[in-house]
């Protein structure tokens, strides 16, 4: 019987590899159907694109994914480069080509003057859901899946305020393993909304789809930074909130309210508060004790 650590390792690796190959196959298959329609129901073109996707997944898995996993397991990877090599490589091998195919599909349809498929819901949601799953797996990898949380985690909660007993004591219980799932989905909510806007037909069949997808992909680069790292604040403003605010204001001006006002308000408030508390409060005028 394999040990629990071995079973957990196999489970994690299988889930991450599935999250890597499934979005690529789905996106490429939808793109193959699009090219099939553009080329006048040409089956040769369809199967050619499918063959290219199979060759890409096979080569990327054998040449990059498997060697990377081997080096990580053998502790031979240079962690000075990034603390999260798996998610960084996942971005390059899965998220980037999927976004590139989405942009290409829009370009093909706009140039051809026909709207065959705007890749609205399933493929885009699948790409982001897979990215979120990879992120969650990397965060809970050090944790046990059974029993109580580790002693280190219990110690981290000791300062917040105290234990509660009695019949309703379960209402005060927290577990970081379940908290990871909620925090990760909230972390990616803004990017999810940005990609949703790109699926709007008025945006998708226009040149605005290019900056939207490019900025959405740039925001995913934050995944390479370890959670709770102080660098996340500046990276969030530089890669997400500030550029998202600019593109959302432009989209609202051009297309109307294709995105709720809540999101640009969130972007501008996060950007302004970061600038104020990080830079402006260091100025002499803001260090006066007589001010509020």
Automatic annotation (TrEMBL):
It comes from the Eukaryota. Signal peptide: none annotated. The chain crosses the membrane at residues 9-26, 46-66, 87-106, 118-137, 205-225, 245-263. Keywords: Membrane, Transmembrane, Transmembrane helix. InterPro entries: Uncharacterised_FAM23-like_TM. This is Uncharacterized protein.
């Amino acid at each position: 019987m394999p040990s629990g650590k071995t079973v957990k390792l196999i489970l994690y690796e299988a889930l991450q590899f599935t999250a890597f190959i499934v979005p690529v196959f789905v996106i490429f298959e939808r793109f193959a159907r699009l090219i099939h329609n553009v080329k006048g129901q040409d089956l040769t073109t369809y199967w050619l694109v499918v063959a290219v996707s199979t060759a890409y997944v096979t080569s990327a898995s054998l040449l990059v994914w498997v060697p990377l996993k081997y080096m990580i397991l053998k502790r031979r990877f240079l962690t000075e480069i990034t603390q999260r090599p798996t998610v960084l490589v996942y971005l390059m091998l899965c998220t980037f080509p999927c976004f590139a195919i989405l942009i290409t599909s829009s370009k093909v349809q706009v140039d051809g003057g026909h709207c065959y498929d705007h890749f609205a819901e399933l493929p885009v949601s699948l790409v982001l859901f897979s990215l979120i799953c990879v992120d969650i797996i990397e965060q809970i990898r050090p944790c046990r899946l059974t029993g109580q949380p580790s002693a280190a985690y219990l110690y981290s909660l000791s300062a917040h305020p105290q234990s509660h007993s009695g019949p309703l004591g379960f209402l005060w219980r927290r577990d970081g393993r379940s908290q990871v799932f909620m925090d990760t989905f909230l972390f990616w909510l803004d990017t999810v909304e940005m990609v949703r806007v790109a699926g709007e037909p008025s945006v998708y069949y226009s040149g605005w789809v290019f900056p939207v997808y490019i900025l959405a992909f740039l925001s995913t680069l934050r995944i390479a930074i370890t959670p709770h790292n102080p660098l996340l604040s500046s990276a969030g403003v530089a890669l997400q909130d500030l550029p998202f605010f600019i593109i959302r204001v432009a989209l609202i001006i051009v297309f109307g309210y294709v995105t709720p006002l809540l999101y640009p308000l969130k972007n501008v408030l996060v950007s302004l508060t970061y600038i104020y508390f990080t830079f402006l409060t260091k100025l002499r005028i803001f260090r006066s004790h007589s001010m509020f």
